[in-house]
Amino acid sequence: MKRTLLATCAAFLLTTAYAQENSYIVKTSGAKHISDLQLMNDENKEEENAIDFISQNFKFHSLCDWQEGMKFMVIPEEYDMVVKTFNDAATDKPVSSIALRHKIMIYQGHEEDTDGRTHINFLCQDDQRAYYYEIPNGTFDDYCFGKLGVPTLAYLGDVDIAREKLVGKDVYTKTEFYRVDTEIEGDGYQEVMVDKDMQVKVKAVGVGTRNYPVKIIVEDKDGNEFYQNVAISKTNSGMRDDEFVMDKERYLFPNSFELVEDVMNVNSYNYRRLLGKVIHTKFPAKLLNEMSKKMQSIPRLTEYQIEAMNPHKEGGKFTLKLKNTTLGTYFYIDMFLDENLAQDQSEYFGYVFALGPGKKIETSEGSRAMIRAGHVGIGFSEDETMMAAGEPDKVITGTNGRYTWVYQRSNNKLLYVDFDGSGAVTKTYTRDNNSKAKVGSATTRHGASAARQAAKASMGWQSGKGTPIEN
Asked: How confident is the model at residue 416 (pLDDT cuts 50, 70, 90)?
């Protein structure tokens, strides 16, 4: 027993040293060295449309049409530690999957031995020894037409093509769930969440697992690296198409990544010049606040940086991801970049936004937290109030320089924001939009368009009519 344990540890030491020199083994930055004993324990843990790009570059190879010279890597899983996959052709003895871990196998065809058993033959590129996988029962044709494959083997043809086609390319993230490595030698990882539809750059491509053979490491604009193991051609992946469901859907390449070049080909408008640019609102707009998950009224002259622009597959619309340069809050809006495609001018990018900086606003750290959530706080300035709630639908003047901003809410409520004579918020409250009491004179805020004035009139926003203010 001790001799077996020592032999197993020695095999791990050899494969660890080999893995450090193997170009197919890639890691995200930050992974750490761990002890070989810990690596042994971790071996027992279970591994958890850019359609044009796929169809043009990655072909599914059934075992029936494998060609001699095709390369695979041995990636044992938990089950493979118990049931050995390969036999040494010279001795006919089973070989430990641990000893073959990360070794490259070159397909050498198949044959029947004298006992009528079918062998699928390989030459190990690393030790130049011959190995075979014995089909459990039946003929080779029966086995391959059953869409069965060779356990433990990850197809390296997909990895080689993905390296050539993807390294250095920009892609969009298509899910929120990715991983980072935690170990240099082993398979330890940590789940991380990232922004969906974020533009990132492919830094490295290597081998993943048998089921998801292509490991794609990407880097965001802040230098953070993360990866996804994905199936592309699904050659010998060990999974049927109908098994890529639920949380496993993201391990298909198109569900994790989308080439920016492919997306750009969908729409002829060259929008790359806008990415990263600073813009500002020329008119009030409604944007989706990433934090509150609600539509938020945005005043004119609010400044953003364009973080991402994701074209829709049809119709010519783009989803813009915008970062507020004052607060760092993210917002989303669907826009047409081509004025001829927009049925309404409020959907046209060039009407709502202009290139260049907007109005610089000073805020306190305490105010920013409330503004990000769309709340108006006591002591807010007019600028801070507009950042949180947008431009008011109505302004009601009071006495001694006091005044009130009134907002029409979507739940048939009215939000009142009272200001003192210095322009600081003294009180906020809501009322049902059903009062008919009269109040003092009311004026509309400067800069409102004729269309906004008409819209207010149609809602009953007339001078001298509103809800009584509480002084």
From this structure: very high
